[in-house]
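I would love for you to help me understand the pair of lines that follows before we discuss the fold together.
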Amino acid sequence: MKKLSKFMTVSLLMTGSLFAPIGVNAVAQEASSAVTAHKAPVNDGLPLPGFEIEPGKTALVITDPQVDFLSEDGVTWGVVGKNVTENGVVENLETLMKTASDTGMPMFISPHYYFPHDHKWKHEGALEVLMHSLGMFDRAGQLDLTGFDGSGSDWLERYKPYINNGKTVVTSPHKIYGPETNDLVLQLRKAGISKIVLAGMSANLCTESHMRELVEQGFEVMVVTNATAGAITPHYNGYEAALTNFRMIASDVKNTEATVAAMRAAYP
């Protein structure tokens, strides 16, 4: 399969030319929903089942808290950076992690890694091609940490005290978007978890795919709306797409402030 060079891929993303053949009108605008989405839905015509944090049954699950998504040095910053910054995702994820650490709430990290053999796949979807072309989440090998520290696959430095603490469960990597290809569900069930507070990157891809699969697997899920962000191009707004599905599928959606308050209230 022919791969785009990293420079060409980034250039096409920034100009929107990568998606030009689709012929869709540009939708990337100043996201007013980035403000309203961080408050509880009001009179939107849908039921709001609600979500109660129950100690012993509830865990914080974070997808892809990695450099390639959340740092200016990451390969996707050109398309996710604005939304990450608007939503305060870096800070909000740290707040959630710290609160989980302070309260003793279990935390699970579902990371995204690609090993050399993953670049030999015979067929890929659009963004799989893009991620592989960018070298996104690349590691030297599944048993090799050469060059890992500080790379695009690594955690942000500010997250390491909460993830590398010997308590947080770091699952095997998911390979495309959802947890169907890793051991997250197994680890959650073995820990007696049935309820999930979900956050992380990227909103309409890995985060939404995790939400869908966890719901299908019988978990109760709440999504933290401003602890995630999506790619925004001249033709597509991944964050707004995700907000619709979070609201329609999850039991509840809350912002970080409300989630932290609920976490602390559950662990007096």
